[in-house]
Batch of 4 targets.
Target 1
Amino acid sequence: MPLPADFFKKDTLELARALLGCLLVKETEEGTAAGFIVETEAYMGASDRAAHSYGNRRTKRTEIMYHGPGHVYTYQMHTHCLVNVVSGREGTPEAILIRALEPFMGTELMFARRKVKEAKQLTNGPGKLAKALGITMEDYGRVFYERPLFIAEGYEPEQIETGPRIGIDNTDEAKHYPYRFWIKENRYVSRRA
DNA sequence: ATACCGATGCTCT
DNA sequence: GAGCATCGGTATA
């Protein structure tokens, strides 16, 4: 069961924490794959140098971030597709990147898609989890409160840790913001602190 | 364990 | 035509 649309109507940093422990589900013709979200990163829109929507940049790519919380923002990075949850009120272009999952169901399908040996390698990175679940640019513009790509209730994380975001060294002051959140001691987190 | 490097595709200038 | 919110291989320790 998808969470209701209202779940996404939170302050972006609060939503980034609330998403930890939730289940991300993708249904395809090949079957269903799902995993618990264990790592997220917040991108704070107009005022955040590291955000695609910095300074309210509005292009074909960033357009969906203006359409209100709960939308699916997929973005192509080199050969990979990255998945984001749009946050903030309509007109406020904020988003949360999903960086890692703990596989829950459909692991055979994930292994078939990823071609790796260790379970840890299935979903411990933003490009990896998108491929494991079969998420593509086709999902751009959908909503996370309806099938076939949705977020459902999961478990309550014991302890949450925070730190600077990964891979944004070129955006001077923004690189220090503690906008990365992960579940402490979870082995599927993409990198240790 | 960390470090570097090339692949490869889409968006924006 | 440049620039990336990445990944997997190879290289070294």
Target 2
Amino acid sequence: MNVLKFLDQKISAALVAAGAPADSPAMVRQSARVQFGDYQSNGVMPVAKKLGMNPRELAQKVIDNLDLTEAADKIEIAGPGFINIFLKPEWMAEKLSGYVQDDRAGVEEAATRQTIVVDLSAPNVAKEMHVAHLRSTVIGDAVSKTLEFLGHKVVRANHIGDWGTQFGMLIAHLEDLQKDNPDVMNSELGDLENFYRESKKHYDSDEEFAKRARNYVVKLQGGDEWCLTQWKKLVDVTMEQNLNTYKRLGVNITARDTMGESMYNDMLPAIVEDMKGKGLAVEDDGAMVVYLDEYKNKDGDPMGVIVQKRDGGFLYTTTDIACARYRYENLGADRVLYYIDARQAQHLQQAWTIVRKAGYVPEHVTLEHHAFGMMLGKDNKPFKTRAGGVVKLASLLDEATARATRLIEEKSGDMPAEQKAEVINAIAMGSVKYSDLSKNRTSDYVFEWDNMLSFEGNTAPYMMYAYTRVQSIFRKAGVDVAALGGDIAIKEDAERELAIKLMQFSEAVEGVAREGMPHILCAYLFELAGCFMKFYEFCPVNKVDVPADVKTSRLQLCALTARTLKLGLGCIGIETVEQM
RNA sequence: GCGCCCGUAGCUCAGUUGGAUAGAGCAAUGGCCUUCUAAGCCAUCGGUCGCAGGUUCGAAUCCUGCCGGGCGUGCCA
């Protein structure tokens, strides 16, 4: 159950019973300090003000109308009119006992199952994935996994860059390479970055080549079969490599999720035609333009967004309009989450403004941009994408693996080779992913090996280590978790802190689903791991002088901790191991 | 010029949408392993929340104006 929601409903009702207007929010939060209890309600003060009442008197009336005897020990009024709630250990113990054998650890499925489209990853064809793709891929997948855990239907939409004028030169370059080596697809294209660079170089230096390339662009857009075949080869070889990277990262993105820009091409003429019919798009200097009062141009006039070029070609705004429409009409989206670079913010807002005006997606279907900043180098300058010096995602993962290997050899060198490899991989991928997942910055951020791959403090290995410590207790105790029973008794401070944290798992999971931000769950899991580490230090389980009833109680807290950590880390795409 | 985002401890970041004395990790310092894995635990140190006003019982959070940084701004994506 969600304790916060439970209390919020109870107190909201009491607030109304005490004379507050019907929809007055109870504003229940986890308490800021231990002396303020476990939860606090901040809703009395605004209402008292509105009604011209003394807030502490209103708070008392709320309490008089509030029945929380089963759940709370103590309810008190504090400060100007806060209501502080202290949960009853027996109540928590009873709830937690129920979670020990529950494979959802107390998290209920969402009341209404939604279809949620998650726009993520979006690598470019004929280029290798590099560090800038990491956030979108990892965060998008983590949110997807969490939403799926809550029972929603998630469509991962991999909006790959598979269209545009650059394909002319790529096709021409591929053609040249094939003349010399028919097997080029299997050899030289292993290094896509080099392939792209070489074709660009050729394009810039050879006018004949450039002419041929431009001709191929026209032919490709006209649906020329040979060009399409060449284009398809480039898409396939790129995605084959990317799918390997996804697999390595433990990210659940498959070939079926590929929905690139080219997918919407067929929709574009009809959309422009439709917008023209609605009076939204008008002709200006040969191009089709949508004017938006919401945005101003340099002269202070409504900004014009071009949806079709003078030469008849379409632009990416038109594609994104079609894309939003497709996600609503064809995929049946109730909600669309876009995990895209912050630089696209204005562009997306414009596209969506047009989408709403054209009536392609109703207001109740939300289009949410979850932006993040650019990856900067240590010199505070962005990574270059074309002129070399790019940090490839694959080499980043290699480096992470190398570092994890060094660490494991040092700490647990005597582990069997197969197990060791598994642990190394879990730690390497977990560390890289966690460093991205735990941040919520929309501004730029500096990429640093040392921060990303440090294995101390608020990191994936810390939480994985907490998990192995629990498992170690069970190995020592020789007890099967499935056979655990008996009562939970919450006595020590460390037990109480752990217990309350365990009660709050669903709040964290639902927070991620609501906000689309996995760092909420990261923070929760770090706190949970911390509570367990403290419990581990202060509350022995397997010692000889621990009474039997205390031992069974603590074993259950351990079992639930393990389950919660595993489920929670699973929600954000981080593996656990039994030993490390 | 206009628009969007950002500015919190030496560093990396939280701050539950206006709540109580602004929190973590790293780094630094000092303690804790004959006792379930010390990748750990405990303690100390560290802040004019960019600056100045305003709104109110109450502001890191909201409004205005500055300062500083990033991004975007009609025929690339």
Target 3
Amino acid sequence: MGRPPCCDKVGIKKGPWTPEEDIILVSYIQEHGPGNWRSVPINTGLMRCSKSCRLRWTNYLRPGIRRGNFTPHEEGIIVHLQSLLGNRWAAIASYHPQRTDNDIKNYWNTHLKKKLKKHQAIGAIFAPPPPSEPSSIIPTTASAGHVHLHHDMPLSKDYGSLHPAACTNTAEATHQLIARRSPFAATDGDSSSSSYASSMDNISRLLCGFMKSSPPQNDAAADIKPSATEINPLLSFNQYHMTGATTLSAFNDMLPSPPPPQQPALMGHSGYDEPRQQHQQGPLSPIEKWLFEEAEEQVVDLMDLSDGCCSVPMMF
DNA sequence: AAAAGCAGCAACCGCCTATCT
DNA sequence: GAGATAGGCGGTTGCTGCTTT
């Protein structure tokens, strides 16, 4: 018997989030930081369950999320990690700081599975796989044992750090955000999108604008002076790791290493620094080295497929 | 042009784990 | 040590928009 659902209360709203709800949630997290989700609906008046709030934040509202259009490079990494880790989407997502586990899971289910099926079907015709591992795209020396990767590192669920000092009043922040909503939506660059979720592609942009225009409201807040990295560590991380990582040789760079202890880069104030931090990795284990080497080969494979430059035409 | 089918994705559900008392 | 609970994760559902017939 599991616990009763957390959302069985009467009056809990379900379904798509509205812009107003998003703004309320973002404002609250702006002020208090992510975490303590149970208190979020209580303190904000949102008629949502805590899980729903957390999910909305982690999957859509937190800064640094990139949506849509997975690159062949990303695909290769996902495929490779999936073959190693199985459907541990959170673990896989930890290698894609810009992507959410939900996004990766959806992408896998809707795109990559099909691609691999075709890949394997063609492979079965032209180069039958060894009988021992017919469903895997890689000969997995590691899959037999427990592969300990960066799954437990804090990166994946850092949620971006929002500085609490940026705003000290939720209601005020909400009003400011609502007041600014239209301009941001207009400059979103995707105004043709029909749905809210995609037109507000990433509300963090809205949030970013809000933060820039919201001066600290007291001296204590001014003292903290968060750096750009602290405000949005994921963005800066991604700029470092992703923008230049277009070659295969950069693959290792794309697999983020945990920050050194003295560098709180990815840890905000938000309380997400406890459990996962305990599992930070040391130097690469042999299995990880193996993974990296294998990954490069597999990425080449998949990129070939995606580019349509392999000898066998692929119709995705 | 309308209907049917399909694909993509946001969100929910239920279980598991870690933490707190 | 046991029970309670919040947070986290993966599977699944259902809605929406697009494509095909």
Target 4
Amino acid sequence: MVAKTETFSNPPARDKLLDAAIGLMRDRGYNATTVDHICVEAGVTKGAFFHHFKSKEAIAEAAVDEWCRRRVARYTEDLGDPSDDPLARIDRWLDGLIESVREPVERPVCLLGMLSQEMAGSNSRMRTVCQAKLEGWTGLVAQLLDAARRIHAPRRDFDSLQIGWMLNSLWQGSLLVAKTRRDPEVVANNLRHAKAYIGTLFANG
Amino acid sequence: MVAKTETFSNPPARDKLLDAAIGLMRDRGYNATTVDHICVEAGVTKGAFFHHFKSKEAIAEAAVDEWCRRRVARYTEDLGDPSDDPLARIDRWLDGLIESVREPVERPVCLLGMLSQEMAGSNSRMRTVCQAKLEGWTGLVAQLLDAARRIHAPRRDFDSLQIGWMLNSLWQGSLLVAKTRRDPEVVANNLRHAKAYIGTLFANG
DNA sequence: CGAAAAATACCGACCGGTTGGTATGGTAGC
DNA sequence: GCTACCATACCAACCGGTCGGTATTTTTCG
């Protein structure tokens, strides 16, 4: 939050704890992940944990933050050159999403979706955090769609923010289904339909 | 012991426990819902709980079952006359979904989605249960789409099961987003886009 | 029928293990 | 000697589940 970040003198304990928390909470969720387990996974003791994070909830917040940071970094990479055709960038981005769940190491689980589902109804603080992340992501998509509209003739009017929310919802729901069915392919299929739908919004989609 | 206020009119403790479990787990999820809390909410003791359900996991399974039973009952009602035009039935069904989240009393939360998200990754038994429910629901939608294809000329070929999964995914994701944003309207918007997309599948959509 | 017997429904104190969190002490670098 | 960093021991609350016992309903059988 402060301009002067502590990243330069960061011993690995905090990072290892964050990685462990992300991994465990992605698999089991918040409540089923214990502080002790995070410590074991990170290879540090509880003293280190509560030195770096004031509570379990605090590391969950930090984990969501870090998770979203990494996702955005990947999306930015997938989108490619900002001067390219926005529609092409959206296509590349969706293709990146499809590919990402196909990578064997990368289970089709989103920490943000997991914690939103589990905590939004009972923990107002985490709900707010997740809401902000969700809105940030959707806003990015909406900007891309707006940019596309400025270049391509829209076949019919549409609310880009609404489309953004639809894509976000479809993405989260797809991950849920893919995890439950143990079949990531549903994500690919769903996103293909999403691409087709976006195509119908533009004249030469 | 206090005078029997309602014990005599056979108020099945099991039903009250199930209702309580559904309500609490829909709000807080599985792990954050304690057996004690379910008992208090149901107004029965722990003895009654473990008489009717052999474990906490068992009541979660039963709760999912009962929840899906109720949902299917509602969907069947919304679908209306089976001899009607399948496309009209699908439309009525989607409208029913939109309306359902607008009812103030009915928070936009699906127990099936909640437990799928929370447990599918760590509890293989519950994962299987949820998978079966998800597949049952999707199969129903696919049947409707197949029926529609038999009557209406499809503008282009499509896999009805795949469309079913997309609708299911979009529904679950929409609920997740609606809950996190505290705005059920996103569900309505998303389902409207889904209706539009289904329209593009048929000639006179 | 009616009483004994058995199954069912429910109660609530209790238990062993777990949980998030604390208190305290140590150590390395400035 | 001060601060950042980490280790160990410990705790009070809580959790899922057990258990011995009681009340009520259903079944068995003379």
